[in-house]
Amino acid sequence: MSAKINKIGVLTSGGDSPGMNAAIRAVVRTAIYRGLEVFGIMRGYNGMIEDDIYQMNSRSVANIIQRGGTILKTARSKDFYSEEGRKRAYENLQKRGIDGLVVIGGDGSFTGAYKLSREFGIPCTGIPGTIDKDLYGTDFTIGFDTAVNTAVEAIDKIRDTADSHDRLFIVEVMGRHAGYIALHSGIATGAENILMPEVTTTLDEMVASLTELEKRKKLVNLVVVAEGYQPNPDSDLKGANEVVRLVEERLKGFETRVTILGHIQRGGPPTCIDRFIASRMGYHAVQCLIEGRHNVMVGILHDDMHYTPLEIAIREKQKIGDDWLNIVKILAS
Ligand code: ATP
User: Is the beta carbon of 106 within 6 A of some atom in ligand 1?
Assistant: First the structure.
């Protein structure tokens, strides 16, 4: 039986994602309801190292469920990669008697949490907060639904213009290593082609499919590209600009337009789904610490809670199945 936890810390780390505030609110209110003290750690692991930590109460999280971003702010902390940095961070937790942690972020943030728990024995729970959705052991990650809906809304508008001209529109969405935003927004907007980092669609295949569409007088050509898609394996250049450069090189006279959606995909009020899963995960993350289910990532699989040990959540990735590629091809035909 593990020792009873009395004081917990909560932080957001890595890229921000809409719905993180709803998760913080759920963690704080569940913890207080269960008789724990809660401390907010500012700017991810940086705040832990620099002792930027404050006690929270139920009112600290009032009126934030509908807000994007994170009231605790977030950061990528270089110092936390070193053992010395983590030791300093742990000493600051120890000073306040913080004996449990909830980390909201992606697999990098969970790696940090896992190391801290291994080195200093502090129990951690991870909440998947990333717009990328590629984490193993969960059907949902907080922020993905909002990001993908923002992308869909923007692409719909671009399609109206694409519909009015015979041009190739290439839209870049976020996803340095994962193509989920591209896949979902591309399918939902009827894109002719979807290019993702996980799938090696060669340039020859893409040019062939564009030529074929042109022959069939398919007037709207909309291609959705993930920012991490690398069209030429021999070059490090990625994303929509590189795709356009290569297409224009091959298909002379093909008129192209590029739109890079960028950071609008991270902001804005979270959708109902993101608020709902964030609330559910936040509640269960605290329950895990109380019930001794330590060093796991809380997830939702087939509408049930699912707990993945942090070392597995760090190692494994959610993969895009081959059947999706068939669906993309058939529906664009
Ligand atoms: P996103 O999905 O938005 O990229 P993430 O959590 O994967 O989120 P990272 O930048 O990879 O984002 O990690 C966030 C922070 O977690 C890092 O800045 C660092 O402080 C900590 N971290 C990541 N990897 C490690 C590691 N190997 N050792 C210690 N700390 C780490």
Answer: yes
Taking CA atoms only, the protein residue closest to ligand 1 atom 20 is 77
Q: What's the CATH number for 7-143+270-315?
A: 3.40.50.450
Per-position b or e across 305-321, b if 16+ CB within 10 A of its CB = eebbebeebbeeebebe
Alpha carbons 95 and 202: distance in angstroms, whole number: 55
Please tell me the CATH code under which domain 147-266 is placed. 3.40.50.460
Rounded Cα distance between 30 and 278, Å, is 13
Residue 269 alpha carbon to ligand 1 centre in Å: 24
Q: Which residues pair with 37 in a beta bridge?
A: 7
| Cβ–Cβ under 8 Å, residues 261 and 171 | yes
* Model confidence pLDDT, tens digit, residues 81-123: 999 999 999 999 999 999 999 999 999 999 999 999 999 999 9
